[in-house]
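Quick one - inputs below.
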Amino acid sequence: MRLVRLLLLYTCLVIASVVMLVPLVWLIAAAFKQGEDFFVYDFFPPPGRLSLNNFRSLFDQLPFLSFLVNSLFVSSTTVVIQLAFSSLGGFALAKYEFRGKRAVMFLMLSTLVIPPEVLLAPLYELIYRLGLMDSYRGLIAPHAVSVFGMFLFAQSMKQVPDDLLLAGRVDGCTEFGLYWRVVMPVSRPMIGAFCLIAFMSSWNSFIWPLIVLHSQDNFTLPLGLNQMVGVYKEDYGALMAGTLLSVLPVAVLFFALQKEFVAGLTTGAVKG
Amino acid sequence: MSRWLDKLSGVIPIGLAPAVLLVIAVVAGGVVLARGKTQERADITVWTFSNTHYDTFKQTVPGFRRHMSPESIPGIDLQLVHYRVLDRRLRSTMWAGMDVPDLVEVNFNRAGTFFRGPVDQVGFIDLTPYLQRKDDAGQTYLERILPSRLAAYTDRGRVFGLPHDVHPYAIAYRRDIFEAEGIDPESLETWEDFIEAGQKLTIPDKQYMLQLDDTGVLSFEALLLQRGGGFFDSGGALTIDNETAVQSMLWFVPLVAGPQRISDNPAAQGQAFYKAVGDGYIVCFLCPDWLTKKIEMNLPQLAGKLALMPIPAVTPGGRRTTVRSGTMFGITADTPDPELAWELATYLYFDPDQVGPRFRQTNTLPANRDAWEDPAFQEPRAYWSNQSIGELYINLADQAPTQYSSPFQEQAAAKVGQVIAGACAYYRQHGDVGFEAYVRKSLRDQAKAVRNQIQRNPF
Amino acid sequence: MWYRIQSRYAPYLFISPFLLLFALFWAYPLTQSLRLSFYATSGPGSQVYIGLDNFRFLLSDPDFHLAVWNTLIYALFVVVVQLPLSLGLAVLLNRPGLRLRNVFRFVFFSPHLMGTVFASVLFGLIFAPRFGVFNRVLHLMVGLPMNTRWLGDADLVMPAIIILSLWLNVGFYMIYLLAALQGVRQDLYEAARVDGAGPWVRFRHVTLPGIWPVLLFVMVISTIGAFRVFELPWLLLQSTTGPDQSGLFIVTYLYQNGFEAADLGYASAIGWLLTAGVMLLTLVQLRLGGLGRGGES
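Output:
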């Protein structure tokens, strides 16, 4: 009886996995398929017909390496800055009572709820007025604080025992010292989780970079690849190849941070 | 490996991830800085959204520098801005009043939205005085450019855009299939002839005579224009519910839906479309000039098997072609040097040395007829069964109907698309019963919705 | 002395990056946008004050009604289908001693790694009629006609969008719920088992209350996200609203009216209406879920 249930469990999981993976497998296959074979073979063509043409075409048509470096820079910088500001803010929310705290939280909620499209045009004008158009500063600055991150950190930092903080203060630790030496190290898992989420969000972001960045030299990966699907040009094979390459860094990061990611969410989820 | 990682992460208090990211940020940042910026102060900025145009402009631009006198070689910043973002970015810059390009290519669909507002506040300059200048041969551009194309970018008597193209439509057909079935393209002079042949050729689920879009206006708009209709008239009034539109819709829907249809729509464009043509699932399709190049690139296996024929006329002796969409060059009102912009625009579009090679590269007919005398247009093309497609399109160009732009072009297109989708569904279910009444009402309702939007607009 | 000062003002300092950036990059543009919503605009310098006209037209525009309807349907499915699926997968993965748990977890999360932009383009090809792999597989399994036009048939567009959304997001929310599940105290389960409670009862009385805050959090977040949906259907339908506007959502409507028809005033009005609606809904959800105060999740 138990065996049957176990079997059922694994079957469900395997079916779900297949459903999740089929499009990805198709993506990989599409990246290595030649143009004529694109809709001839459902997934992989016979080994003889595998080709790197799409990748060649991709690198021919676009400065792909450039896009990759740009994306790496933008995303990692964004995450580091967001980490600093969000964890600070989350710490304040978690461990302090101060005037205006509820107002602050209301403001925070409002940022999560309002669709960013409303802000696109006035924000664009503002960025220009500040002389930050087509620059990474202009790209990153409006998103330097992640409100979502603040919520995450607030949640996880709430669980740091107040005694620890008290002990620190008794020892003459400054508030910032508490943050840096006591609370942050304990929040390691949440930091890992946040890094992953923030990185993914920045890596895949599309509309804002599309508006702010003008020169192709500055493009991030989604922008660069999107050029392949335009009014006068469609090269789905190369697009699939580029997509595949673009997803790899995030996948690697996730694979490396999986444990911390889940651990971070666990701490975040458990309530006192 | 993981032990080493654990050790490392033990050293850094806040964890491995931020440290790694910091390292990446620094390294990548270094690369970005080292790359530096080639920011030569550009005298003139040009935006385009089309990869093809961008490529041809890049080739043309060096010639421009020589064309101008050496003392005044301008720095030209040519930017490829993605189609889906160009007009948004253009609008944002115009709205903010800064960083506006000097020359910008705008697609027909969006062009009308830039002509809105008080006429002297439109973001583009009126090109009429430039078009009226005589050149060395005593000709003006107004005379050289096809009037129907100029009309597309004219608003309240002012010409805001220099037309790039004509985009005449022909029908591309599988010559091998026609021959096998004994169909002579010359005999298909009217739509009646064509539909009759279509019904012979169409085998449901296996082979269809014609590819027509039944979810949107990609086909319908062109066919409506052929019949003398359109979404807007020269005064900018909405005409999607006038009698021509109704009759066209009544004619169109049975072609794509219902038991007698000769058309299927596996895909309007892209890989799926090419596959359908390559398989012979689709025998004919509407083919504007630019599509021929894409066909050549994407269906090499059909070389020599495809050919072009003029579109069947609506009535005997009638118009054998139509148009749809296109691109214009606009000179923005904020530009400091409109003369330079004009020189560059006409050079990029109309330079006689470039016209031939460009046609070979893109198969696109330019809007100025004096270019058509270039021998490149007469060359027979092996791919197209040795037809001279240039000659064919040139012969059609004069018959091209006029399409008028409007700020509400896209709304109108969306609404008509809705009507088509609904009408097809209706026809599939009910056939001819009550069909005309349905179409009339549907068009009228959607027209009313667009007119509401037009009326809201205080400009 | 310094110690006392910094001790007192520390929280304000910590929260100041947020406040500064909020003021500059959020509040200021937002107020601009609010002002605009009472104007009709068209490009450079053309602004005409029209009071509440934007809102009046908005509420009477059948297109907007359609957009709201589509968005509601989509949000409903997200809550009613996506959440249980995420929870279900999380429960399956939570089984103690499960082999390959990490592998499964990675597999389920991997679609989300792709990102909406790339996934939408990918699925544009996958949903293709006659050749798309989606039709192929369904044809083999249940005999679905190969001609099924997921993105070309007005009735099938919403299911296609929902399927893509599920594929992208189920794994993402599953991770949260899995983490929450793993936080539920095991002794509570033991106690329940000892009391003779079956699995379903255990689920209702131990699991659900245990993960309730996270579940509520996920529900709120996914609802908000559903109301803001734009990139997914827009890119899937190749920058159109699909046949018969079946892919028209509120933010799509906003984008078309703000950035294609260039009426930023009208777009601002739409944005504000959407915001008000979503905030209201969020408050309702939170109240009903028992977390009335500011501390979400």
